[in-house]
Design brief:
Number of helices: 19
Distance between the termini: 30 Å
Order of helices and strands: EHEHHEHHEEHEEHHHHHHHEEHHHHHH
Length: 512
Amino acid sequence: MHTVVVGTTGVTASDVLAVARDGARVRLSDEALAALAAAREIVDALAAKPEPVYGVSTGFGALATRHISPGLRARLQRNIVRSHAAGMGPAVEREVVRALMFLRLKTLCSGRTGVRPEVAEAMAALLNAGITPVVHEYGSLGCSGDLAPLSHCALTLLGEGDAEGPDGTVRPAAELLAEHGLRPVELREKEGLALLNGTDGMLGMLVMALADLDTLYRSADVTAALTMEALLGSDRVLAPELHAVRPHPGQAASAANMAAVLKGSGLTGQHQDDAPRVQDAYSVRCAPQVAGAGRDTLAHARLVAERELAAAVDNPVVLADGRVESNGNFHGAPVGYVLDFLAIAVADLASIAERRTDRLLDKNRSHGLPAFLADDPGVDSGLMIAQYTQAALVSELKRLAVPASADSIPSSAMQEDHVSMGWSAARKLRTAVGHLGRVLAVELYAATRALQLREGLTPAPASRAVVEAVRRAGVEGPGPDRFLAPDLAAADAFVRDGRLVAAAETVTGPLR
């Protein structure tokens, strides 16, 4: 099994995906262990002084004015974990929790938090054992980090609360630790706070969303090309010189992908069944502009994620010169904003895909295709209700596009009086990404059926490769009405796991 080595300078998105989704093992570098030990010496020295230091010898948040005596400090750190593990609602996904833990470990290994090396090693051991703390949907305001979610993870390190074992069964954390030969951690000064104070949950979900959307945006270029072809549209609008005069890189990439899929088509722009079409509808003609704008939003979000992956988010933070300083780096605004930006782009991409699908089904606008792509319209309803489902998903996506980061609610007796809501932005983006895949699956289903109904005309080689692959995947072609839900589920899986893009690339080569 692949092993990810965590050092002092951050991790990569591929590291996060390997640990969160593929179960990769984690190992701390010698450099990280040395940095942890050096920073701990600084914290121990401060703990021995009479002057109060936030997080080391004081209470937290609005209670930071109280100086805590040495005899109570272990209890203080244990108590912050217990009291902050106050999440509610359903458990979040295993991959999210693994990303959350791994990214907190990344910050611990920076040597900026002041925890002992054994605390970081305990976190790595938890990941390697496949033990996943139960983290609940609600509890983070995205400021002072993802406090409740990270607290539930820290609680498992203490041998308290519930966790999911490698077999997926939820059991008491103490039992799971003992079963895997792991000892509960006894926290010392600052360590409880350092385990809780990061934007790790929202960042982990951003990294995974970016990976999923990379596949879905290329998938959208393929489905848009198939629809353009099925509608006998003009591929002249994809010419690179047209996109060079408005030099957005995402737009050029989307147009190039569509052109690659349509190369060699016997349908595009060659068959005018009624009055000659000077221009196609916006949903067809402007596909590269809309998908391209989303791609450029992805690029910006990826830049923010890369910066965060290299960051050490904690409060207070141990600086290289030995100072321990309070700061506001735990505020999730940078991540929250791009999570919301992506939700807006996802909603618009789904919206234009739904409009193309509706055009395929409307006999008054489909240029010769049967109503609803039905076998015997009137007796058969064809894909009428598949488009209803698609429309319902698009409507939900519009609601999910309302920014979470535009909201703030005061907490901690007005000490924490402005928060990012970045966790909420991340949770709704996860839902949005799933909906986008379903919307594109419906367009794929409709477009491949429409292409097969264009008898006597020859689709592009890449289009034929997609049609053949999707049929092999269990998505049936034209014919009388049948139970559609299994076909739509198979099409969704075909899009989501990258087989749609892979099928097109057998002809086109790598799509951008």
